[in-house]
UniProtKB/TrEMBL annotation:
InterPro entries on file: Man6P_isomerase-2_C, Mannose-6P_isomerase_type2, RmlC-like_jellyroll, RmlC_Cupin_sf
Transmembrane segments: none
Coiled-coil regions listed in the entry: none
Protein name, entry field: Mannose-6-phosphate isomerase, type 2
Keyword Acyltransferase on entry: no
Species for this entry: Nocardioides scoriae
GO biological process: GDP-mannose biosynthetic process; polysaccharide metabolic process
All copies of domain Mannose-6-phosphate isomerase type II C-terminal, residue ranges: 18-121
Keyword Cytoplasm: no
Any one GO molecular-function label of the UniProt entry: isomerase activity
CDD domains: cupin_PMI_typeII_C
Annotated keywords: Isomerase
């Protein structure tokens, strides 16, 4: 399900989307960057994926994140951050019993939702 929510200005509309693993909400977007709040349900994880046009920086707000980046696993709790370099194969997961909330800052010339190549996916969305 895809929703578009109005912001203060009629020129700005911020996206929000429910996914099988949780949801994401765009907080801010401008040329060169996008900021999202991502919620990951307990026991779920995102696709193992790469991006051609952007890097990402994750800051854990609530819960414990299991971050896989180019085959290495990093566990991050509230206040910790993880960098995902451009082109790195990565995945974010929540192995805990509470919701995981992160803020994701995307940097790059293009931050569209179609800049994704899924390598593995628990919900059959590979490609």
């Amino acid at each position: 399900m895809r929703r578009v929510e109005s912001e203060r200005s009629s020129k700005v509309s911020l996206e929000s989307e429910d996914r099988p693993w949780g949801s994401w909400h765009v907080i801010d977007v401008n040329p060169g960057y996008k900021i999202k709040r991502i919620h990951v349900n307990p026991g779920h994880r995102l696709s193992l994926q790469t991006h051609e046009h952007r890097s990402e920086h994750w800051v854990v707000v609530f819960g414990v994140a299991t971050c896989e980046i180019d085959g290495e696993t990093v566990i991050a709790g509230p206040g910790h951050s993880v960098d995902v370099p451009l082109g790195a194969k990565h995945r974010l997961g929540n192995e805990g019993k509470e919701e995981l909330v992160i803020v994701e800052v995307q940097h790059g010339a293009y931050t569209g939702e179609d800049d994704i190549c899924r390598h593995e996916d628990d919900f059959g969305r590979v490609g």
